[in-house]
Amino acid sequence: MKEHKSWFLGWFIALFGFGLAIIGIYPGEEGMQEMLNLVDEPIFEAFLGNFGEGATGYSFWQSMMSPFLGIVFAIFGILFGVRIAMKSISDNTGELINTLPLTRSKMLFNKIIAGMIFGLILLLSWAVPLLIPINGNSIGIEIVLSLSWWAMLYLLMSIMFGILVGNLTGSSGRGAQVGILFILFMFIFQTLINYQSKNLITTELWEYSKNGETVIYTLYNLILDINLVSWFAPGAVMLGNDIEMKYIWIITAALIIFGFLSFFTYNKKDLIDERGIFSRKKKQKGVDESDDQSHVKAKKSVKKSFHTFWIRPLEKRFPHTADMVYSDKRALMILYIAIIMFYPMQLFMYLGDTASVDATTALGDGGIMAIFTYGYDMSLYPPWVWWIVTQAIGVHWMLFLPMVVRWIRSVPVRDSEDGTGDLVGSLPVMKRTVVFQRLLGVFLEMIWAVAWLVIWYVLSVLIHESRVGPANGVAEEVFLFNNPLATGWVVIAIISMIPLYMFLTVMGVVITLFFKKKGLQYAKYLIYIIALLLIIAFSLGNPDLYWLSGIMGMYNPVGIMIEGSFAPGNYGVFALIGLTIVSLYLIRLNTKNFTWLKQETKEIVEE
Amino acid sequence: MDDNNAKNGDISAIEITNLTKYYGPHKGIENISLKVKKGTIHGFLGPNGAGKTTTLRVLVGLLNKTSGDAQIMGIRAGSLDSKKHIGYLPSDFELYKYYSVKEYLDYVERLRGEAPFREELVRRLKLDETRKTGELSKGNRQKVAIVQALMHRPDILIADEPTTGLDPLMMGIFDEILREYVASGEKTVFISSHILSEVQATCEVVTIIRDGELVSSGNVKELLASLPRKANLKVKDGVDGENLAKSINASFKSQKEDEVCVLFEDPKEFMKNIANSEVVLDFAIPPADLEEYFMAFYK
Prior knowledge:
The complex is a heterodimer. Chain A is mainly alpha-helical.
């Protein structure tokens, strides 16, 4: 358990903090009344299910905040499963531990027990706030208990699945990436299918297929049922409905299958190499295993990847810039997939059905939606604009904040933490050169990602608008060909995120360098706080408190695109550029704190 | 410094004067002074935790000294200019796992600016450049480290336990490479190790440290010659080894049944005494061993 303690702490703080924030911004029973009046709208059935007896404003509020819980618990469980299976191999501690007189099954079982304890603590961090009566009734102990044992079962199943993924992929890094991508894909697929299943091309066709029990209807439900992310959906239970027992049976069956497979694969695979269970073992000729490797297919070069090839012309002049981009190859791949998920896929989901559009608009900009709409009253704008904002433009922080957290480690401390500094540090390179060239790499990666955001946005809008057209209630002013200026401002809004994320990265690097050993920790906490302030500021729904959004609020893409100006955010984009330049100067002053060596032997070396 | 050395024609490849390094309150090394002559293979010995790696890391600029002075070819150690003269082979390291061997060496070559010796080293060490560095065994990673340290033909190779992970065949190849490397008299090797037999076979000069402090330094042959020699005597049954040693003017070391081990200073006198002894049936004098010398500092 000690091994995973600090990793788990981040999850606990995040989930507990989120729970408290939700309680904090609860508008009260009176404030919930307006939303309760909308419960007959079909869009709510699509997302939340029917209201049961005993549903209160508070339970409705919590249920609205809960759609992502299935993903959160799934990701936690899978990542933890990957960690307990693979971490000891990836960090080379396994060679000692795995030779102790214990069966592998027993070792794995003990680790799973630890996982369940962590899961229980995580669960409490979520469940306890549900019981706290704030401005009304609490969810109720009975509902919380039934949700809790459902959640524990789901967590255990996710952990088993994670162990299996870890065994198949062979390393904690690969396993984590596969796990996260899988869940993201399942979530998007679920949302797509769920929404589509209620809103086919014409409502009439859907009604016919539903009542007639057609193959399409059956297929849609089957696809929903086999989607792992949909097996834990506490919203409906919070609204007073019973748990659907079929999900309990599905989770139990999946738990047994994943459990068997995870133990089986764990017993079969090698425990000292980062090699999946199906990897070919290398043939060895005598002692020297480098003889005749012609039968081993060379793995694809990091330089030939679609996500990194563009940096090759700069290799000679800026070797550390190129190296930075190559090291980020997998992260850029995941970012690209996430961009695809948010931009073309989400934008494509919009069908222009008037009834749905009205109901969607009715959700407006309140509560959690305000985080994406930056507090703008979207009912004043065409529904299509609301859709673009909430599904693509306003979700930029979901894409880039994880990258920022990665970059503020990669630039200053990657070598000292990974042990690669002993070799590279002895080369005739200046630390300042290394740091600034790596920051240039960050900048170029941002340009690459933002370019794809723009390309996918324009393509998605072109394709979609050519299909939907004004007849379906989409206002003409957002058509690409009719109003290139409006589209131009959307593109400018997208591009303007570069100063924000460059500043966050550069600021994080300054903090990491300045505070030396604890610097990276402080920088990460600061990023989390900055993100939380954005959520809190807009969720409160009080324009007088929007200033709380702080640094994140200085970039207001919704304001930029809607008002066609940089004034929203008080020209914050330009301030961010200025702050970035100042921070770069501070980095220059602190590059002497850059070290090549591992944490315990870190010292400052003057050049 | 450069002018004086040039004038004297006596440039030290490495010169360390009262070098001290503390990690907070903990001593790493203290008042280490040594000179490594150009064109030599200089061994740096000590047990685990003696301060060898600390000294080497200060020389290559990975650690900052607490006090004292360290110079590489007359240039302050750790400076950018000094790094141009060295190749460093650490004992504990990782490679960037997203590169193949070739890509990693390309990266290092780009930073060095040249690598005339690269192809030959890769060939002699039988390194597969198509492999991903993350897939390599410890031995193969060591080979990559050897190539990146030597491929630009540095003036000085600084190596920390360089043969760790290499099989005997590769160790032999590495020794050969080192010897060829210094044969011109222009290149220097400063090598830390605790494999004494290897140091004895390879190095001309050796420095020994213990607990962060220098205990001895000198030419290997001279050091060995200064040691009392060991002799293994086969004696008659019942002979007391200690009394025998006194009678032949030697120091008693150990006895196992009819085999007695003694130490002597003067070979001529010893041989004469052995010849006159009635209880010694046979004797053997093994070659002088650096291990004996080394262990003398740890009794």
